[in-house]
Amino acid sequence: MLPEMSRDTAPGGARADLLREARALRTALDTDPAGARSDAVRVVAAARTLGEPEALAWGLRAVAVLHRHDGDPESAERLLGEAARVARRAGLAAVGAWVLASRSVARLELGRTAQARSDAMAALAVVEQHGADDPRVDGLRARLHLQLAVMDHNAGRLARAEARYRAVARDVAADSPDLVRAANNLALVLVARTSYVEALHWAQLAVDGAARLGPALRSWPYLTRALIKVHTGRLAEGLRDLEAAAAASQRAGQSSGEYYLEYADTMRELRLLPEAAVAGRRALDELARAGDGLVEVDARISLAETLLLSGDAEHAAEHAAAARDGARRQRRPGAHDRAVLVTAQALARSERAGVPELASVQRAAIRLAASGELAAAAEAHLVGGRIAVAVGARRRAAARFAAAADLARGGPLSVRLRGRVAAAMAARLARADDRVLAQCRAGLRDLARHRAALPTMELRALASGHGAELGELGLEVVVRGGSPAAVLRWMEQTRAAALGLAVPDDRVGVAVGNPEGASDAPGSVGSAFAVPSRDPDVPDGATPPEDVRPVVRQRSVIVADDEGAAHARRSAWLDDVEPRHPARAVPGLSTVRSALEGRHLVELGRYGGDLVAVVVGPAGARVVELGHVEAEVAGHLRALVFALRRMVEPSSAAAAAASRRSADMRIARLRALLVEPLSLPPDAELVVVPVGVLHGAPWSALHDGPVALAPSAATWMRTCERPARSGLPVVLVAGPDLRGAQDEVEALRSLHPDVRALGSGRSRAQDVVSAVADADLAHLACHGSLRSDNPMFSSVLLADGPVTVQELHRAGVAPRRLVLASCHSGADVAYAGDEVLGLVSAMLSQGTAGVVASIAAVPDVEVVDLMLALHRRLAAGETMARALHGARGEIDRDTPAGFVNWCTFSAHGAA
Question: What is the C-alpha to C-alpha distance for residues 94 and 48, in angstroms, rounded to an integer?
């Protein structure tokens, strides 16, 4: 035993009182760190005055721990260094061991792993000298073993970390804070091993224990339980845990950097990439500012992964390289290997990866698998296989693909699907088309089950991106087979799948209260998916951080600005799914031909950069390969939209003429690329199912006959089933601040026998929703606003503000036919996985059978003539496609405004 003495410990003396208060700080830091702050500062001041070294060491340690929780590990290390010197000079070995343990945590956060381990081992040596029953080191042995486990965890030595965590959990008392920490981190190790059932057991143990122990420990268990729930498809529960973790972190006064890191990872898993990038950059900024070098490396890797998925390979490589260097300095091989993987992916994306990258990725994959990071190892093998294909090493590629497929089994959805991709690519190398299709079908079935469990159309559409490559690999095989029926069937099973389900319109969003949290001890490690569940221990009434405050949605339409829209959007994610439309079988060729009733279907797809079309007509079906033209098409579309925008308000006659020449040239070129190779009768009526950027093409201007668009053939066939209903009024709506809108409504009144008109002063959101919800025909003459970054929050402007696509969708608005005489109202946005989101697709998913809308800005006044001609034909009983075709034929295309209106409006659906 090592003796410890202070200058004056006489009972009842000032020093004795100070020592009792100083020693009590150790427990206070675990149970109520915020309340311990003033006591710690007072102890330090009093100890300096009285010259009491033990009290000063305890006080400095407490202040340092609070600095660390404030996101300032540099100051914490400095104060702990002073505390260590005080304890050493006074011969206070046990106090010094506690100080070294705390300094080990601070140094670990700073990325100084060798120094952190040295402090922990030195403290452990003191504990062993004191013996297991010495009250001065009671609990410190378990905490140090826990700390060493965290170091092993961060270094990627998962097997050693797991053994230490299990030992700590076995040895500490049931009410110990260290049990919460060990259980929490053990759950994270089990997640890396994809052992989700046992991981959830330990995470729940941590959540329950933290609730009993007070505010200091609640945040991390919520984050860990959220990770598991998101990975196992329990999205709403996971997101509630994320909200709870954010609230707990705020109440405990903790830095939000790590919270934003977890949030970014969750958004990336859901393929909400803009949100993931914003949160990732915020996490990186806050962690760098706080000097948290350890987690800063994880944040850089996370941001690099997000940027890579977003197509920004250059900046992804920069962040990955910085993370790789940081992980090397910190002696963290697991983080280093993940950074190597992202770097290789970025180079492969830009076709700059070669044999050196293949070797480095293969080494990383082997080490990651050995350490138990199976998901990362599977991705590394898949990347290695791609690089091997690129350099011509087919045998090595096959081996890498096989290893990736094997490791991915049992992982979360995104990892399992990557495993299916790997297996399909191995079969492709072996020219085994049947095996390629088997892997693609299995993966797409798995994705369909996952997608059906998601609460909103937006999340379902984004989730389809996980299966984009499987869809393209399968399409390549069926196109090579040459069967139009097989190609159409394959396209349809991957097309607009998110539109088949709709959530009900009468659920109220979930308000989530705030738990608490903060402590001095090893925290969670790594970059996990953090996400929520409402628990009895979460107190009500507190306000979460501004960026995560939920919105309680009312049964009426909510008018939201950008901030409110973000809150409403997150609130929608917390709903449980209740499918409105059951899943349908993929329509066969004969069924489609029968529904077309003489029309021609043109359904487009893509694989490997090539566009392909299936053409179904009255006399047969064929496959037409359009070739590697998508990039050229995209360029012409951008130039065309720019020219049309200039023609809406030309600066001069010369500018209008130049724009017209550009537009004519682009339309002619688009016809040559997309329509002429199809060899269609010039006046044939078409149903076109676009893909990718082709959703933004002016299809009515590319073909001389009537054209109707649809997200899929199945969706178009569903619009055929909604019959007209007699006795329903035509609803005409004029929005505010739009020249000609009121005149347009007045002019249209005379064309229909039963009209309900809402002028610009009366077109309030609730009145409009109520009027158009079940109308046979509704017409909205309003300003439109496109949100290409978030199409569900594109909006139309009404008298009391903008109403978003999401609000209309969730309110169940579904007139049988809808005319949107507003800018950009038809500009739905395409997503990976053959999905599309926007006002038109939202209306079609709710049951609207026909829509007319514009893909670009339209002239306010001149559009009235087109609308009058359109409505005359609709009143005479024509379909939207035929009525629009006839109305466009009456337009004077020699004027800039007339040409824009002729070019930009399209019909959707069969009504």
Answer: 20
Alpha helices in 232-354 (DSSP H): 235-251, 257-269, 273-290, 293-309, 313-329, 333-349
What is the Cα–Cα distance from 521 to 717, expressed in whole angstroms?
61
645 burial (CB, 10 Å; 0-12 / 13-18 / 19+) is middle
What are phi and psi for residue 613, nearest 5 degrees?
-130, 145
Contact 56, 86 (CB under 8 A): yes
Q: Which amino acid is at 37?
A: R
- Do residues 104 and 119 make contact, with C-beta atoms less than 8 angstroms apart? yes
Q: How far apart are CA 264 and CA 546, in angstroms?
A: 16
The CA distance from 188 to 524, in Å, is 8
Encode pLDDT of 498-513 as tens digits: 776 543 433 322 222 2
Residue 191 banded pLDDT, cuts 50, 70, 90: confident
Residues in the chain: 911
Q: Residue 580: is its pLDDT beyond 80?
A: no
9 within 8 A of 17, measured Cβ to Cβ = no
Token pair belonging to 507: 């659920």
Which tokens in the block code for residue 744?
């347009």
H or E element: which one contains 621?
strand 620-627
**All domains in the chain, ordered by first residue:** 327-466 (1.25.40), 482-503+577-911 (3.40.50.1460)
Cα–Cα separations (whole angstroms), residue 196 to 152, 192, 203, 224:
21, 9, 10, 11
Neighbours of 37 (CB within 10 A): 18
pLDDT value of residue 233? 67
Q: How far is CA 791 from the centre of its chain?
A: 14
CA 260/CA 283 separation, integer angstroms = 5
d(CA 556, CA 577): 19
- Give the model's pLDDT for residue 547: 29
- Closest Cα partner for 544 from 585, 515, 580? 515
Please give the span between the terminal C-alpha atoms of the chain, in angstroms, as a whole number. Answer: 90
SS3 236: helix
Quote the tokens at residue 28.
Answer: 């206070």
Angle at 510 between CA 508 and CA 512, to 5 degrees: 155
Give the position of tokens 């009285």.
Answer: 50
Alpha-carbon distances, residue 768 vs 109, 457, 801 (angstroms): 55, 23, 12
SS3 content of the chain, % helix, strand, coil (to 5): 60, 10, 30
The phi, psi pair for 802, rounded to 5°, reads: -75, 145
pTM score of the predicted model: 0.71
CA-nearest of 711, 743, 722, 731 to 830 is: 711
CA 624 vs CA 416, 487, 520, 602, 611: distances in Å: 33, 11, 66, 10, 9
Q: Which helix (DSSP H) or strand (DSSP E) does residue 42 occupy?
A: helix 33-50
Alpha-carbon span 101 to 97, nearest angstrom:
6
CA–CA distance from 787 to each of 562, 565, 615, 739, 784 (Å)? Answer: 11, 12, 32, 23, 10
Question: Which residues share a beta bridge with 875?
Answer: none
Question: Confidence class of residue 308 from pLDDT cuts 50, 70 and 90?
Answer: very high
Contacts of 428 (CB under 8 A, 6+ apart): 436, 473
Minimum mean pLDDT range among 38-52, 231-245, 374-388, 397-411: 231-245
Give exposure, 432-450, as e/b (b: 16+ Cβ within 10 Å): ebebbbbbbbbbbebbbeb
Report the greatest alpha carbon distance in the chain.
Answer: 106
